[in-house]
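Class prep. Write one:
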Amino acid sequence: MVMTEPQETTSAEVVEAEEASASFVQAPKLMRIASMTRAMLEEIRQAPLDEAGRRRLVEIYDHTLAEMEDVLSEDLREELRGLFSPLSGDSATEAELRVAQAQLVGWLEGLFAGIQATLWSQQAAAASQLQQMRMRAIEAQGHAPSSEPAPGQYL
């Protein structure tokens, strides 16, 4: 039985692993928020809002911002706070609500485009690493002494 020493992990590696797993868990919630916001924007474009409708939409908008802060990384949270501020229920006009919702949908779409680009980049990097590993394995097989004839050689 071979005993191996436990591998030490740095706190940075642990934090990175936790953030990676958290992003996978929280991405569906962010997607649901974006879908809800888009649907609400389409609805409010089609009909004028009365006072009760505006108050409800302000509540939903403010709740959406709070929910998003829970699922975003710190740098995105700071960006969110800098771009968006809670609306006041009594004074928000219909136009302000539509602009705020459109801004939120646009920001979320940009966020998803960035996530998608990052995933494509990671996939390309992984494919490149795999190809390099395959090439090294092929090269190593060509240099290793073998008692069997190479494929295609007849003796």
Observations:
- The first helix runs from residue 11 to 46.
- Residues 13-107 form one domain.
- Confidence is low (pLDDT under 50) at residues 1-7, 21-25.
